[in-house]
Design a protein that fits this description.
Structural class of chain B: mainly beta
Number of strands of chain B: 11
Shape of chain A: globular
Number of helices of chain A: 0
Largest sheet of chain B: 6 strands, mixed
Order of helices and strands of chain A: EEEEEEEEEEE
Radius of gyration of chain B: 13 Å
Helix content of chain B: under 10%
Order of helices and strands of chain B: EEEEEEEEEEE
Strand content of chain B: over 45%
Distance between the termini of chain B: 41 Å
Oligomer: heterodimer
Distance between the termini of chain A: 35 Å
Chain lengths: 114, 110
């Protein structure tokens, strides 16, 4: 009953370091998403994917890259971390069947850039 | 584009009823979602409206008026565990990606 799993849960980086956030879902969902959540700003879409091998930019894509090599995994990369990327990152997935399908969220990754 | 507005904070008393409003401006309408998010946790799905009217789910109900670009979430018989942020969100695009409001932080007092 895992749903959407994100790793790591917490991470502290220094400015300029790189890292990859991992997201895995076991619901066979086609659609996957990466959001960031900052105080007072709600959730904002970084990148998303409509299926294996596809990715697209969301509202705030700069400084991030993504890959969807396998249907169940969606990776978010920071090539050169900046303090402005300090945030809570949420991955989500959803089914394609029906307009009322909600997105299912992982527990988040809390990332601090010093 | 999408624009979604909701109040930043609300306070209510245990056992009372509270209504959380959401107004939206979207380039195309594909329904409206409500999510609940407790501090430090993931958002969880509460309701989805695509037609005008009230959808009831136990203590929670959600209302939609497409002509007015307006929705509300109604919480009845408030409990302390209902203290959380309530997020209004509109889907759009090829993956029905969500545009969220900033969230309404509800505090339930004893």
């Amino acid at each position: 009953n895992a749903g959407v799993t994100q790793t790591p849960k917490f991470r502290v980086l220094k400015t300029g370091q790189s890292m990859t956030l991992l997201c895995a879902q076991d619901m066979n969902h086609e659609y996957m998403y990466w959001y960031r959540q900052d105080p007072g700003m709600g959730l904002r879409l970084i990148h998303y994917s409509v299926g294996e091998g596809t990715t697209a930019k969301g509202e705030v894509p700069d400084g991030y890259n993504v890959s969807r090599l396998k249907k169940q995994n969606f990776l978010l990369g920071l090539e050169s971390a900046a303090p402005s990327q300090t945030s809570v990152y949420f991955c989500a997935s959803s089914d394609t069947q029906g307009s009322n399908q909600p997105q299912h969220f992982g527990d988040g990754t809390r990332l601090s850039i010093l | 584009g999408q624009n979604i507005d909701q109040p930043t904070e609300m306070t209510a008393t245990e056992g009372a009823i509270v209504q959380i409003n959401c107004t939206y401006q979207t380039s195309g309408f594909n329904g409206l979602f409500w999510y609940q998010q407790h501090a430090g946790e993931a958002p969880t799905f509460l309701s989805y409206n695509v037609l005008d009217g009230l959808e009831e789910k136990g203590r929670f109900s959600s209302f939609l008026s497409r002509s007015k670009g307006y929705s509300y979430l109604l919480l009845k018989e408030l409990q302390m565990k209902d203290s959380a942020s309530y997020l209004c969100a509109a889907p759009s695009g090829s993956a029905r990606q969500l545009t969220f409001g900033s969230g309404t932080q509800l505090t339930v007092l004893p």
